[in-house]
């Protein structure tokens, strides 16, 4: 993708005019300005904001201060080399607990939209929705390989849509595989070395979809950019990352009723799916072992990006009140990245166990030795909560105000498990619940049976999702 240079870089170029000792600007020579080039400063800011790991207090405070500069940053364009960092900002801002954490997405959206409009030869879609027997849905896929969480979570939903719509998938490079793409009737594949945005947008406009359906937005720069444009009469997203896009070009966001929380957190029109209508596909590379808990061993099955200081401080409070606790982290890192994460975690908990990324079976075996699991906040787990349930490990969660922090609570309620010690509404209550269960392990709730979990997590559903999307389509056609 190609980025034009905007205000900051233009200002930097103008600043190259050197002032002589007497305050005049000679016409015959230019010298470098004093201090870093403004484009370098901006690139450094973007890199800091795009770093996924902010486990230390210092790094986290810097993240929040820089995020608060979103209005100032919106005045500038970004150099081509910073595109990937801007995409990371869009994703990782969601893991913070800042009240206005999504505001910086609007700045990233502006950068990407300006870039896209400058590169496109064809105008955006101006068609209105028209009644058709079988409308076409185009699905941009950030990641959709067979064992990826996006495939496991969204393949059943997309299969439902195929019953009423023509379903066309689109992905770049090696983001999918032959088994996964069987979900679609047709596939538009973009080789990784040809991900020029002008070509991608032209391909979509030529396809002329009636609906663009994003299972997620945030894991790839090209899909973030697409979301800032009008390329179909109706544009829908699921909180696959999960979070709001903050783009005026995304019309609807679909999520289950119990996961909505505060509607003010979303820029889209939120449409509730019936609770229980979303199921997933079970991984076939691991067999959940029997639960054999070791006393006081507590799992934190969360990627490193979710281990922010507010959560780590809650763990500190737990450790202060119950010193025998043994925290076991699963940050899903390897090599040098794992060493860095391990180092940061041990600043908080020197005796913690920090496992590197492993195969799925080894992960399940280790998880099953834990007596309890803790859901991170404000960004909780989805597949990790499911894995804990499969291994018979109870999970304590802090219920948040948007989808990312409500999934564990929804599943606990759906199984009819007692909420008293498993679902907290405040950090202090979260800490109290964990300490209580460690003090009184005989109060651990009974976990659902394998049969219940099969029906709840992986069972077939009727066409509730297809019906909801069809209702949106008919409404838009009527308008």
Describe it.
The chain has 479 residues and is of the alpha/beta class. It folds into three domains: 7-119, no CATH class; 136-279 and 462-478, Rossmann fold, CATH 3.40.50.11380; 294-458, Glycogen Phosphorylase B (Rossmann fold). The chain has helices spanning 7-14, 38-50, 57-67, 70-73, 83-92, 103-119, 149-162, 197-207, 221-227, 309-321, 335-348, 360-367, 383-390, 407-414, 427-439, 450-458, 464-478, and strands at 136-141, 166-172, 186-190, 211-214, 234-237, 252-256, 269-273, 294-300, 326-329, 353-354, 370-374, 395-398, 423-424. The model is unreliable at 1-31 (pLDDT under 50).
Keywords:
seven-stranded parallel sheet, 3 domains, single chain, Rossmann fold, alpha/beta, 479 residues
Layout of strands and helices, then pairs:
Layout: H1 7-14, H2 38-50, H3 57-67, H4 70-73, H5 83-92, H6 103-119, E1 136-141, H7 149-162, E2 166-172, E3 186-190, H8 197-207, E4 211-214, H9 221-227, E5 234-237, E6 252-256, E7 269-273, E8 294-300, H10 309-321, E9 326-329, H11 335-348, E10 353-354, H12 360-367, E11 370-374, H13 383-390, E12 395-398, H14 407-414, E13 423-424, H15 427-439, H16 450-458, H17 464-478
Parallel strand pairs: 1-2, 1-4, 2-3, 4-5, 5-6, 6-7, 8-9, 8-11, 9-10, 11-12, 12-13
Helix pairs in contact: 2-5, 5-6, 6-9, 7-17, 10-15
